[in-house]
Amino acid sequence: MSANPIEPGHGDSVAAWTTVIIIIVAFALGTFFFWLDWAALVWASAGLAVAGVVVGIFLKRAGYGVGGSKSKH
Predict the structure, then answer these.
(1) 32 and 44 Cβ atoms separated by less than 8 Å
(2) Structure confidence at residue 31 as a pLDDT band (50, 70, 90)
(3) How many domains, in total, are found in the chain?
(4) Residue among 45, 20, 22, 23 nearest 32 (CA)
């Protein structure tokens, strides 16, 4: 089965990569802070993960998502 040459990929965009990187960093920091028993920073890391989703939505609406006006085609 061959891939569709028109499809740009599953989330291969600036918006998707930025969102994923922010969320991965948030979870890594949250795990580290949980290990150190710093509850406030664990919650801050959870907030950072939510902020990553918001950034992704903003970038997608700004044209940096898959098929967006400012993304690669």
Answers:
(1) no
(2) very high
(3) 1
(4) 45
Q: 14 lies in a domain?
A: no
Reduced to 3 states (helix: H, G, I; strand: E, B; else coil), residue 14 is: helix
pLDDT in tens, 49-72: 999 999 999 999 999 988 888 877
- DSSP string of 16-65, one letter each residue: HHHHHHHHHHHHHHHHHHHHTT-HHHHHHHHHHHHHHHHHHHHHIIIIIS
Which tokens in the block code for residue 16?
């998707």
What domain range is 59 assigned to?
34-65
